[in-house]
C-alpha cells in the first residue's frame, strides 16, 4: 500500500491538471460565444434605432424644423431604451465628437469627447465615429464607466451612422458578466474536484479492505471452530444433543464445551417440564370449557322454558282481565292488575327477543309508523295512568317505514316503559313522530332526574337508579337494533328533562 501511494498521488495530479486545461478551453469558448451573442443583440438594437430615426426623418422633415425634430427623436430614444441596471442605453455623437445624447452620464452632453482616451490608450469616440461610417457599422472594444457601480469595466460597443445628420449612433454591453459566468464554472470545477478527491479516499478505503483480506485468512481458522459450534446449536435446537470435546481444536474454545453442554442439558430439562405443564393446563382448560358449555346450555334451556312457562299464565291473566272488564266494568284494582300484567308482557317480549335475536332473521315489512306508534301508546296508557303519568302524543299521520314490527315494538315499548318507570310522579310523557325530508324523527320526552352517563345506560344490566326494578336489558336491546339498522341515537338530559331521539333514514 505504501508503494502504491506515490502512483495514486501522481494520478490525482494528472487528473487535476487535465481538468484545469479543459476548464481554460471551456472558459475561452464561453467568452467567445458570449461576445458573439452580445454583438448580435447590440447590432440588432442599433439597426432598430436607425430604422426609427430614418422613419421619423422621412415623415416629419418637411413639417418640422430640423432642431426640434432632432430633439424629439433623441428624447424618444432616451425614454424607450435602456435596462433597469443602467446598461443597454443608446449614445449619440456627431461626427465632430460632440455628445448629443448620453442618458447615464448627462454631464457629457454638449461636450466634445473626440480625443478621449481610455486607460488602455483607445481613442474611444474617434474610433466609434470612424467605424460607424462604414456601410454596416462596426464594433469597438474599450473600457468605460459602468452605471450604478462607479468603476471602469471592459465594454464592447457597436456604432453605425445616420448620414443625413452626420450622427454616430451606438450602444454597448459590459463584458464583466461573462466573468461571472466563468466564475460559476470555476466553482463547479472545484466541487467536481472535491468529489473526485472523495472518490480517491473511497478507493483508499477499498485498498485497506484488501489489506483486511490478509486478516481474513487468519480468521479462517477461528471461523472453522465457530462453524462447528453453529452446527451444534442448530442440532441442539431440534433435539437434545451434546458437543464432543474432540471436535474442537483451539484450547480457548475447548474451555467453552463444558459450559455449552451444561446449558443444553438445563434447557432440555426445562423444556420437558414445560411440556408436562402445558399438557396439564390444556387438559384443565378443556375440562373447564366443557363444564362452561354445559352450564351455558343449561342456562339457555332454562331461559327458553321459563319464557314458555310465563307465556301461558300471562295470556290467561290478560284474557280474564278483559272478561272481567266486559262483565263488571273497570275499577282501580283491576286497572292496577292490568298494568302489572302489561309490564310482565313487555319484559316477556324483551326476553323472547334476547333469546331469538341471534337465531332468527327478522324480515322487514311496510308499516304505517304513525298508526303503529298510536297502538303502542294506547297499550301503555293504563300503565302510565297507574304510575300517575299522562302520555301526550304529537304524531304526524301517514308516515310509512320498512321495518320489522317486532323490532320496532321493542324500540317503542322500552322507551315508553322507561319514561313511565323513571319519570317524576304527576308529570306528562311526550311521544313525538315527525318527518323531515328523508329523515323520520321519533322522540320520547319525560320529566326525570339527570342521567349522568348517557352512553353507559345502553350497556347491558346497567341501571341509572338502583332502587328501580328491572334487568337493565331494555336499552341494550334498543341499541343493538339501532346499530343493526343504522338508526342515529341522541340522548340529552338535565336536572328536569330527558329526551331520547331516534333518527330513521328512509329512501
3D structure, described in words:
The chain is α+β, with helices and mostly antiparallel strands and 507 residues long. The protein has three domains: 13-183, 2-Layer Sandwich (Beta-Lactamase); 239-329; 362-505, Histidine kinase-like ATPase, C-terminal domain (Heat Shock Protein 90, 2-Layer Sandwich), CATH 3.30.565.10. It contains nine helices and twelve strands. The protein has a five-stranded antiparallel β-sheet with strand order 2-1-5-4-3. Strands 7-9-10-12-11 form a five-stranded mixed β-sheet, with helices on one face. A hairpin with a 4-residue loop joins strand 3 (138-146) and strand 4. It is flat and about 140 Å long.
Write a short abstract of this structure:
The protein has 507 residues and is an alpha+beta fold.
What keywords describe this structure?
Beta-Lactamase, five-stranded antiparallel sheet, 12 strands, five-stranded mixed sheet, single chain, Heat Shock Protein 90, alpha+beta
The number of distinct structural domains comes to 3
Uncertain segments are none
How much beta, percentage-wise? 15-25%
Strands, total number:
12
Widest β-sheet, arrangement of strands: 2-1-5-4-3
Report, as a whole number of angstroms, the end-to-end distance.
85 Å
Instruction: Examine the coordinates and then state which fold CATH places here, giving the name of the CATH topology of the largest domain.
Output: Beta-Lactamase
Helical percentage: 55-70%
Output the number of helix runs.
9
The first-level CATH class name of the largest domain: Alpha Beta
CATH architecture of the largest domain: 2-Layer Sandwich
What is the mean pLDDT?
81
Main beta sheet: strand number and arrangement?
Answer: 5 strands, antiparallel
Per CATH, the superfamily of the largest domain is PAS domain
Secondary-structure element order, N to C: HHEEHEEEHHHEHEEHEEHEE
Structural class: alpha+beta
Q: Gyration radius, to the nearest Å?
A: 54 Å
Q: Globular, elongated, flat, extended or rod-shaped: what is the shape?
A: flat
Amino acid at each position: 500500500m505504501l508503494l502504491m501511494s506515490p502512483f495514486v498521488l501522481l494520478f490525482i495530479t494528472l487528473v487535476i491538471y487535465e481538468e484545469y486545461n479543459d476548464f481554460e478551453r471551456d472558459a475561452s469558448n464561453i467568452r467567445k460565444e458570449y461576445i458573439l451573442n452580445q454583438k448580435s443583440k447590440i447590432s440588432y438594437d442599433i439597426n432598430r434605432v436607425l430604422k426609427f430615426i430614418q422613419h421619423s426623418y422621412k415623415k416629419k422633415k418637411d413639417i418640422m424644423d430640423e432642431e426640434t425634430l432632432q430633439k424629439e427623436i433623441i428624447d424618444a430614444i432616451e425614454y424607450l431604451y435602456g435596462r433597469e441596471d443602467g446598461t443597454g442605453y443608446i449614445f449619440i455623437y456627431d461626427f465632430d465628437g460632440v455628445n448629443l445624447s448620453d442618458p447615464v452620464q448627462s454631464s457629457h452632453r454638449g461636450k466634445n469627447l473626440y480625443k478621449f482616451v481610455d486607460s488602455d490608450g483607445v481613442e474611444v469616440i474617434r474610433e466609434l465615429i470612424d467605424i460607424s461610417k462604414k456601410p454596416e457599422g462596426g464594433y469597438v472594444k474599450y473600457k468605460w464607466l459602468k452605471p450604478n457601480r462607479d468603476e471602469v469595466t471592459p465594454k464592447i460597443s457597436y456604432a453605425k451612422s445616420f448620414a443625413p445628420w452626420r450622427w454616430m449612433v451606438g450602444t454597448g454591453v459590459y463584458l464583466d458578466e461573462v466573468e461571472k459566468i466563468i466564475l460559476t464554472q470555476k466553482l463547479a470545477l472545484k466541487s467536481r474536484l472535491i468529489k473526485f478527491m472523495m472518490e480517491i479516499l473511497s478507493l483508499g478505503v477499498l485498498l485497506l479492505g484488501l489489506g483486511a483480506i490478509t486478516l481474513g485468512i487468519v480468521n479462517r481458522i477461528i471461523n472453522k471452530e465457530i462453524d462447528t459450534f453453529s452446527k451444534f446449536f442448530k442440532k441442539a435446537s431440534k433435539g437434545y444433543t451434546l458437543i464432543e470435546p474432540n471436535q474442537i481444536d483451539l484450547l480457548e474454545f475447548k474451555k467453552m464445551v463444558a459450559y455449552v453442554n451444561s446449558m443444553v442439558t438445563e434447557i432440555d430439562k426445562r423444556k420437558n417440564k414445560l411440556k408436562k405443564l402445558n399438557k396439564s393446563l390444556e387438559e384443565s382448560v378443556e375440562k373447564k370449557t366443557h363444564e362452561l358449555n354445559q352450564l351455558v346450555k343449561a342456562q339457555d334451556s332454562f331461559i327458553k322454558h321459563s319464557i314458555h312457562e310465563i307465556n301461558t299464565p300471562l295470556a290467561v291473566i290478560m284474557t280474564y282481565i278483559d272478561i272481567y272488564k266486559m262483565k263488571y266494568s273497570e275499577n282501580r284494582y283491576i286497572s292496577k292488575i292490568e298494568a302489572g300484567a302489561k309490564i310482565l308482557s313487555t319484559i316477556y317480549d324483551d326476553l323472547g327477543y334476547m333469546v331469538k335475536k341471534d337465531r332468527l332473521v327478522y324480515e322487514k315489512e311496510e308499516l304505517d309508523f304513525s298508526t303503529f306508534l298510536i297502538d303502542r301508546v294506547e297499550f301503555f296508557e293504563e300503565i302510565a295512568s297507574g304510575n300517575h303519568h299522562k302520555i301526550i302524543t304529537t304524531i304526524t299521520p301517514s308516515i310509512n317505514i320498512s321495518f320489522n314490527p317486532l323490532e320496532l315494538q321493542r324500540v317503542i315499548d322500552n322507551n315508553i316503559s322507561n319514561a313511565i318507570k323513571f319519570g317524576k310522579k304527576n308529570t306528562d310523557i311526550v311521544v313525538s313522530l315527525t318527518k323531515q325530508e328523508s329523515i323520520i324523527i321519533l322522540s320520547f320526552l319525560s320529566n326525570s332526574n339527570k342521567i349522568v352517563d348517557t352512553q353507559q345506560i345502553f350497556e347491558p344490566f346497567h341501571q341509572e337508579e338502583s332502587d328501580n326494578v328491572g334487568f337493565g336489558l331494555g336499552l341494550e336491546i334498543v341499541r343493538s337494533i339501532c346499530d343493526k339498522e343504522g338508526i342515529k341515537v341522541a340522548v340529552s338530559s338535565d336536572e328536569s328533562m330527558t329526551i331520547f331521539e331516534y333518527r330513521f333514514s328512509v329512501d
